[in-house]
Amino acid sequence: MKQILRNSLLIGGAILGIVSVGAGGYVAKAATTAPTTSTTPETASAAITPGTITIKAAPSIGFGTVDSSADDTSYTSTSFSSGLQIANPGEPTGWTVSLADTPFTDGTTGGATLKGASLSLADSSATPVKADDADNVSTLPVFTAATPVSSAPVTILNAATGTGVGSFTTSYGSGDATLKVPAGNIGGSYTSDLSWTLSNAPA
């Protein structure tokens, strides 16, 4: 018990700090201590609401004025009005873009059609689809060359769940479409309607 008491007194002396002030006199002075700091845990929060996935641009395709042929022939496109551009502002569901066409019909000859004609698309660039922002951290959607396009939709771009977030463009070159026309068709000014369809789900 005495040992415990003596240790307590020594600790008390250390805390008070015994200082000599002159001829035999003593005074107790409170010791100074370093200031203490404390932190309160806080958070930074952000509620980011996904937007609607949209087609920002889709191309029309031109083949120009070409000569008809007595044999099977293929025509190469001369122009695309734009690339195929998709914007996904944060939706995690994945998505698909498909393409379908209608028969090539001549509006000047009473509705004649290019019988057996077939449209196909490719992409001659080394990277068919690119993110519009260089620092995009999402996985790119998958590009598929559509061969051939028909009235039944064919997949052009497919983003799996959790991928394809951001803005992406497939930039077609002027010669990336081919129109195959069998022998036996008559000349005319033909047009096909292209339907680019966006589905809010992966293929």
TrEMBL record:
Every WxL domain range: 35-202
Pfam families named in the record: WxL (PF13731)
InterPro entries: WxL_dom
Protein origin, superkingdom: Bacteria
Annotated protein name in UniProt: WxL domain-containing protein
